[in-house]
UniProtKB/TrEMBL annotation:
InterPro entries: DUF2134_membrane, Tad_N, vWFA_dom_sf. Residues 14-58 form the Putative Flp pilus-assembly TadG-like N-terminal domain. Residues 75-169 form the DUF2134 domain. Pfam families: Tad, Tad_C. The lineage of its organism: Bacteria, Pseudomonadati, Planctomycetota, Planctomycetia, Gemmatales. This is Flp pilus-assembly TadG-like N-terminal domain-containing protein. Coiled coil: none annotated.
Length: 978
């Protein structure tokens, strides 16, 4: 019995154990499935994380910086691998070997399908790459492969399972429209004169003669403001200021016609290396300078060693002619350098080469008032004693034959001593009294009259001297003699003749008629009047300009703008080649400007109107002039009357009659003062604060190009009525965008193609008309920001029909985020009415004509707000080419359109313009633009400090760059698409 039972139990154990083994195997399988597959899932998750990070890090490393090969692809590959090995894989980290594949691609827009997709994939796992056919690398695809070891599945012979992940990152596409203010107020820091006085703080101005009492209007000592409290700061024409470096140094000339100025220097020649053959036009030598402080408007102190006024600027080491030494201001010599030109005589008749003081009192230091004063005749009546014949009691008929024979070559001081208190001396008697030697009565040869006087710095030279030299000019020579008779004709085009019998009328050609018609003595007149009584002898003026020191270059150009290619011999635009006719027209207008002829006779130019000269100023009138002959007629055989009334003392010029860099640059900045001219300053010059904006934008565009490879940018200027178009369309030609900031619009395509010589005139006819104000990128016009914002909408819009409507480029990319950067220095004061043409995502704006208004114009402000509100609406999914389509903005479901306003310049600078009337209004306007544009706080009345750009020019440039870099770095620039 027991044996039987024992056997039974043994058999049962034997049957259970195999079953248990089978169960354990299954159990291990489930454990393996749970553990190994779980580990595999973790590995796959960690692989995906690592791939995502690697793709993002690697893509963000890509850039378009100059000098970097393949969009920095090798560094991007290294960064991608490095980020991978920093990521955990279970209990360890990934290894470089597990990054099995890295591919670079381009995230491109297909305009046909209007979608983005990655194209042109290339395997770059080892770091090697090749430049894409066009554009840049903007996408990376990272593939990670992991052989995940098993733990329990090994019982089935499975030692590892494949794992890994793939991630693709791309630069998020953005379309950016820069809307820049190019209105007239953008040049307020470079205003030439204001309220009839210079805004130039440069102390190098004349102090000789009448200029000694006019320093306050020749040297700007304080910043001013207009009627609205907007700043009119001291300008940067000849010295560096907080506005920027000197404008005077922004002009150039081609030295190819330096020895034959009448020969046209066109087209521009090049050097052996192919670069433009250009030298500085107005700063033609570079004296050592020190002590300048632009922040405090402090001019540099120059070292004038070796100065030579006869230099032209093309010498190996030029030493002249401009800027001229500072001591030329007093017409004195210094440090072995002799003054070049005629020194104006003192009240005692002397030439003083060392005395720098000029005053309005003592005869030894003041200038002579008129011819009678110069020659030592005093009193209300001419002298009548001790001479023969007896003199008239009327200055009208008084004359001094010795003076009229030898003029400024006469040693007047010696003559005055000899004559004493008597009247004029018989020239023959005076010769005999001086041993009959002519040189004994004349000044030394070095001091003889040459017919020009030089000013300091950039003033150039003038033929003006009072009293005029009495001698008739030798017209075969370039200078000398009576400047009135040399440079002016009578109304019939004949020589001005002071010997014409006047009888009882002011006959053309008579003495007083010369003075009345050439010199305006009215209280508000300019130096030279434009009447029917005289004509300018332009040929004589041009000959004079080309003689002596060459203070103006033989041609003038800057920023691809050709102002003149030669200094012609006449102004007859009916003869010559096209270029010669242009030059003749230019020079006629410039001469008229300097002399104050015609439309240039106002007081708004050249530092204002002429000035009276002490109490001795006498009004020139048309009084009756009768014939009078002296008994020593043999000395002046044809002289029948005085060359002028000896007490004539007209108003003295300021910058009028000075031919040189300052008057030339003022001529180019005429603006609306002469409607035929307009602002011709080149887009490359330091016109402040327009230039500060451009310099900042230049850096910003470099940043976008370098660090945001999938950003497209376009450029819009606004200024009514000058700028009314897109400056450069949306795209990635960043060099073209930078060129558009500085060069004429009509040349941009040529310049972008590599051309270095082509230029344009700022006029299309010899009458200096036909100029397109929008061509040269300089400041001018009124503030109509809705124009710029409407064009920005069109630039960013994906519309396929806006370009055909001539209202924008219409090549925005659907799927790209839209950003408008809107800069202004003011508040709206005019507007073009924007009309929204609703065509779904083909929508665009058209613009009407300019309507003028005052600062803070609410209509213009509301137009700007409405354009911004339209911009940030959602973009329609459909489009039509005609008829009403769905309403559409530029926002996408995952990429809201944004408008970033920037307050730039003087108006917003509380230190520079403490009483600006419209600063608060302008800030409130921009704050509301930010609110509507999705970048500001609701209800705010000012912009953040980072978006308000003020301070000295270098600070503004830096702040502008930092502001926009901050904007572009905000948000997510690199995203995963798989």
């Amino acid at each position: 019995m027991r044996i039987a039972n024992s056997g039974y139990r043994a058999d049962r154990r034997g049957s259970i154990l195999p079953l248990l083994g089978v169960c354990l195997i299954g159990l291990f399988g489930f454990v393996a499935l749970a553990v190994d597959l779980g580990m595999l899932a973790v590995a796959r998750t960690q692989s995906q994380n690592a791939a995502d990070v690697a793709a993002l890090v690697g893509t963000r490393t890509l850039n378009n910086k100059d000098g970097v090969l393949y969009s920095n692809l090798p560094a991007a590959v290294t960064a991608a691998k490095g980020s991978t090995t920093s990521n955990p894989l279970l209990s360890g980290n990934f290894t470089s070997a597990q990054v099995s594949k890295i591919e670079a691609g381009q995230y491109l827009y297909n305009p046909t399908s209007q979608t983005f997709q990655v194209s042109n994939w290339a395997t770059v796992t080892s770091g090697a790459g090749s430049a894409p056919a066009s554009g840049s690398w903007t996408a990376l695809r990272i593939t990670i492969t992991v052989a995940q070891p098993t733990y329990f599945m090994r019982v089935f012979g499975v030692n590892s399972m494949p794992s890994g992940a793939t991630a693709t990152a791309v630069y998020r596409p953005r379309d950016i429209a820069f809307v820049l203010d190019m209105t007239g107020s953008m040049a307020y820091s470079s205003t030439f004169n204001n309220n009839s006085q210079s805004m130039n703080p440069d102390p190098m101005v004349p102090v000789a003669g009448h200029y000694v009492s006019r320093q306050s209007v020749l040297i700007a000592s304080a910043n001013l403001a207009n009627g609205n409290g907007e700043a009119i700061p001291r300008n940067n024409y000849s010295i560096a200021t907080p506005g920027g470096p000197p404008i005077i140094r922004n002009f150039y000339f081609d030295p190819s016609n330096i020895n034959s100025p009448a020969t046209v220097a066109y087209p521009l020649t090049t050097k052996a290396d192919g670069s433009p053959n250009l030298l500085n036009a107005f700063h033609r030598w570079s004296p050592s300078e020190s002590g300048a402080d632009s922040t405090n408007y402090t001019a540099p102190t120059y070292t004038w060693t070796g100065y030579d006024p006869t230099h032209k600027g093309n010498e190996a080491n030029p030493k002249g002619p401009v800027p001229a030494p500072a001591f030329y201001a007093s017409m004195t010599d210094s440090a072995g350098i002799t003054y070049a030109g005629d020194r104006w005589r003192r009240g005692d008749g002397k030439i003083d080469k060392t005395e720098t003081t000029w005053s309005t009192s003592g005869a030894a230091t003041r200038a002579a008032y008129h011819a009678a004063d110069l020659l030592g005749y005093t009193g209300s009546n001419p002298p009548t004693s001790g001479v023969s014949p007896a003199f008239s009691t009327d200055w009208l008929n008084f004359r001094d034959p010795l003076w009229e024979t030898y003029g400024y070559d006469l040693d007047i001081s010696k003559y005055r001593t000899y004559r004493g208190s008597n009247g004029p001396t018989n020239p023959a008697t005076y010769l005999l009294a001086n041993l009959s030697t002519l040189n004994n009565i004349l000044v030394p040869a070095a001091d003889r009259f040459v017919g020009y006087s030089m000013g300091p710095g950039y003033w150039g030279k003038t033929f003006y001297v009072w009293p005029p030299d009495p001698r008739a000019p030798d017209m075969a020579q370039a200078a000398g003699g009576d400047w009135r008779r040399r440079f002016f004709y009578n109304k019939s085009g004949g020589a001005l003749d002071p010997q014409v019998d006047n009888n009882t009328t002011n006959t053309a050609g008579s003495v007083d008629h010369i003075n009345e018609t050439i010199l305006n003595t009215g209280s508000s007149g300019q130096t030279v009047t434009a009447t029917s009584g005289t004509q300018v002898n332009y040929a004589a003026v041009l000959k004079w300009i080309k003689s002596g020191p060459q203070v103006l270059p033989p041609n003038l150009r800057a920023g691809r703008v050709l102002y003149y290619s030669s200094i012609p011999n006449d102004v007859d635009t009916g003869t010559g080649t096209t270029q010669e006719k242009f030059d003749k027209g230019f020079w006629k207008s410039y001469i008229d400007f300097v002399l104050g002829i015609g439309s240039y006779s106002g007081t708004g130019n050249l530092y204002g109107g002429a000035d009276s000269w002490s109490s001795s100023t006498a009004t020139i009138t048309g009084s009756d002039l009768t014939n009078y002959k002296f008994s020593w007629q043999t000395i002046l055989e044809s002289a029948t009357r005085p060359y002028m009334r000896y007490t004539d003392s007209p108003r003295r010029p300021r910058l009028n009659m000075w031919f040189g860099p300052l008057s030339m640059v003022n001529f180019l900045t005429m603006g609306d003062t002469a409607s035929s001219i307009g602002n011709w300053l080149p887009g490359t010059c330091n016109e402040a604060h327009c230039w500060q904006l451009k310099a900042g934008m230049n850096s910003v565009l470099d940043d976008v190009k370098n660090n945001h490879p999938n950003d497209f940018a376009g450029l819009v200027f606004f200024a009514a009525s000058q700028h009314n178009s897109v400056r450069w369309p949306l795209g990635q030609n960043f060099q073209a965008l930078k060129n558009a900031l500085f060069y004429p619009k009509q040349l941009l395509t040529t310049i972008n193609g590599g051309n270095v010589t082509t230029e344009v005139r700022p006029y299309t006819t010899s009458s200096l008309t036909g100029h397109d104000d929008a061509d040269i990128p300089n400041a001018g016009g009124s503030t109509d920001p809705q124009t710029g914002l409407a064009y920005a909408f069109n630039v960013l819009s994906p519309s396929t029909i806006s370009a055909a409507q001539s209202v924008g480029t219409g090549n925005g990319r659907r799927g790209a985020q839209k950003i408008i950067i809107f800069e202004t220095d003011g508040v709206p004061n005019s507007y073009r009415t924007p009309t929204f043409v609703q065509r779904g995502y083909n929508s665009y704006y058209t613009l009407g004509g300019v309507t003028s208004g005052s600062n803070g114009n609410t209509t213009g402000i509301n137009h700007a707000y409405n354009v911004i509100k339209q911009t940030v609406k959602q973009m329609a999914a459909t489009a039509t080419t005609s008829g009403a389509g769905a309403d559409s903005g530029l926002s996408l479901p995952n990429a809201q359109a944004r408008v970033y306003p920037i307050a730039f310049g003087d108006l917003f600078d509380a230190e520079l313009a403490p009483s600006a009337t419209y600063r608060d209004d302008a800030q409130a306007f921009l704050a509301k633009c930010a609110e509507y544009g999705g970048t500001g706080t609701v209800g705010a009345t000012t912009l953040p400090d980072a978006q308000t750009i003020t301070g000295p020019y270098d600070q503004r440039i830096t702040r502008m760059r930092d502001c926009l870099e901050r904007i572009f770095q905000s948000g997510v620039s690199v995203v995963l698409i798989e």
